Amino acid sequence: MSADSTAAPLIEAERLTKRYVVGRTIMPGSGRALQAVDGVSLTVRPKETLGLVGESGCGKSTLGRCLTRLHDIDDGTLRFEGVDITKSSRRELRPFRRRMQMIFQDPSASLNPRRRVGDLIAEPLHVHAIRSRADIPARLKELMELVGLPAAYLERYPHEFSGGQRQRIGIARALAMEPSLIVADEPVSALDVSIQAQIVNLFMELRERLSLTYIFIAHDLAVVRHVSTRTAVMYLGSIVETGPTDLVFDRPAHPYTEALLSAIPVPRARGAGPRERIILKGDLPSPLDPPAGCKFSTRCPFVSERCRSERPQLRPLPDGRSVACHFPRQASQDVSTHLRASNGKVLVEHRTSIASISAAFGRKLRHCAL
Amino acid sequence: MNAASETPAPLLDVAGLTVSFATERALVPAVRDVSFKVGQGEIVCIVGESGSGKTVSLLSILGLTDRRNTKIEGSVIFRGRRLLELPEWEMRQIRGREIGFISQNPMTALTPVHTIGWQIEEQIRVHLNLSRAAARRRAAELLDEVGLPNPTKALGLYPHQLSGGMRQRAVIAMALSCNPSLLVADEPTTALDVTVQAQVLELLRRLRLDFGLSIILVTHDMGVVGEMADRVMVMYAGRVVERALTDVIFEDPWHPYTWGLLASIPPLHGERPVRLASIPGTPPVLTALPKGCGFAPRCRFRFEPCAETPPQQEDGEHTALCFIDPSSRPRLREQILNPSSVQAA
Q1: Which of A26, A128, A153, A285 qualifies as a FRET site for A351, CA 20 to 30 Å off?
Q2: Which CATH number characterizes residue A209's domain?
């Protein structure tokens, strides 16, 4: 099932901005603004899965909560199914809430320990009056079947379940609303690997069966690559690269994407030879005081003068993705000539070796079919 | 790979380690019959899911379990000394001095009320006979060694003023402060972002190279295993189900649980599988362990013998606790690791 690229967008954000004020005291005008989401534009079409990746503190969770209007939006516009909901009141939002549901990282924190699972899933059905009271028990059984739990578990309390089962309950509760959009915020990162694979499979099955659209937020790039049709990489509140998942992962254009990918330890034998990687120096700069110019310029191994003074905008490349970099990698011939002309000679060679090594990985991995 | 298996006495030799916790109802076995050796300059990884006994094994080697409710059997020999039989005061001289420990969450190892410099100095002065000024110089050297920018300034910082990666470096500096010969790291990078994880792993590799440090690394990430380990132990339900050299575990894994672990990881390159080969079910509860093979209830290939305790199959350093016959092993393994090729055939 592939997303229809001509369909009307389900959710559309334009220059979305969310600021937090930190260190505010009683004095008027005190405190500093922290730009958690900084002018993000994105479009998600029906049946698509958009993966949002980035390191902790990059604003991916805040963005997810802005998109579902769990947070108020400071600037920009947000449209859901063509309707502007940027400034909608709680009451106006109510019909939309049903259509966009959220799934959280820690399922135990989102389940009331004193209530039975059946009551927990039934509550939103009552609130939104989706089913008549008589129909609810049948619907609960259906939902449990959907997420792969026995209907008898409806009588149990959350503490009687393992982490993976609790996440299934969280998913059942989100599905109870018959949403068209599900925003999943790190839904598998608290789970053990073998359980993680079960939940990832469940997400993919449900997408097929119920024609769902996902925004899948995670820091685990391998999981995001597996589930998403498109991927957006965030750094310090902005999207630095977005495009079809295969393109972003196989031929990253932004140096940050490339560094992120090369930092992932690969489960493989060492016989495959040593691996070249970009190890970023230093930490994420404070979001209170982002670097002038390109936000990544303080850690970018290929930084040039222009990067420090001028902030690159997210702009489309001919191959269908967008990247916020003055010198996107391997985009076109003239860019690599430019790089070679400046300090880029070493850099281009380095890149080729990474490409050939990762191709070798690909073969290796296919060989043992990981 | 400088496996020091030829040298007569390994740095650490753990044999038949069995740890049980006394609860109100019964003795709960958390670790059963774990044996391994760590040679000079070797990195040994212990992998497994939560509750598989990785951390308990480490803590009991270090004598950090509560002696009142823990029953430890077996032997742990570190540089010729039997650690399990040492009195507490002697253990305290070994811990921190000869064996360094890094925990998963750096904040559990650092006190929030003292500066980083104070905490490293304290450790140095407890173990080594150094003046305060000398200890401070040593602390600054250590912070420089682990790659903290501006180490002299960092000495005066409190843990909350450092980022997660910096804190973990400070903890590593502390663990290294008395030049230990063995470093024990319990999921040292799990709480860190990938780019920072890459920095910390790089640092550990460099320390091994520069100082000949031996490292026991507990992780749940097969990627970290691939990057770091010389040898691997896979634990499940308190037992070591498979043990091998790193290359072997990826190229010729024997135990169905190892197959499942490898198949659960989505690939970063190449084709995307339609479904991930997850392991059905959940890990067993330690109070109700199945008789026989602990993995049998989740194993696709279980057959009648699995109700008994599985035999240890061995080929040199490679061992696995499983009934599956070596002759049928490759065929069964393909079904998990390479399902598409099996269907095509």
Answers
A1: A285
A2: 3.40.50.300
